[in-house]
Amino acid sequence: MTTPAIEGWFTTGPEPALLASSCTECGNVAFPRETGFCKNPVCSGETFDEVELSRRGRVWSYTDAQYQPPAPYIPTSDPYVPFALAAVELPEGLVVLGQLATGHGVDDVSVGSEVQLVVETLYTDDEGEKLMWKWLPIGESA
Q1: Do β-strands 56-65 and 83-89 pair in parallel, antiparallel, or remain unpaired?
Q2: Three-class SS state of 134
């Protein structure tokens, strides 16, 4: 069985999407979804519509995780496998952090390069595969 590692944050269909909220009073978009109060400091909104964020964005920053973090971090692989992270700016104005897709590292991206949202297996446990969104580099990196 495959399930999202974080329920309700993203869809897993053929065209996966991050799920955000849009304040019904001011239109402020928040990821992860807001359920209590608007994150816009000048708004007192408390109701939200669910919206899907754009699937493509541009790398705002990136790094690699070459060293296993200390406890209480729980590794998803044994032995630890380094991975790359990208902070991606979406057209909605949000910057969303995520791992780069399997097989891609910091040499595959640069600031401003385009990436696309994909869903891959993050780890497998007794209940099955746990899925997570990742960023797939597309086109030429500068």
Answers
A1: antiparallel
A2: strand
Specify if 109 maps to a domain: yes
Residue 124 lies in domain: 54-137
The answer, yes or no, to whether residue 109 has pLDDT greater than 90, is yes
pTM for the whole thing? 0.88
What distance lies between CA 25 and its chain's CA centroid?
Answer: 26
Beta-strand ranges (E) seen in 73-113 are 83-89, 95-100
Say which CATH number the domain at 72 has.
2.40.50
pLDDT bucket at 76, cuts 50 / 70 / 90: low
Alpha-carbon span 86 to 98, nearest angstrom: 6
How many degrees, rounded to 5, is the angle at CA 115 between CA 50 and CA 113? 130
Residues 21-59: pLDDT tens digits? 999 999 999 999 999 999 999 999 999 999 999 999 999
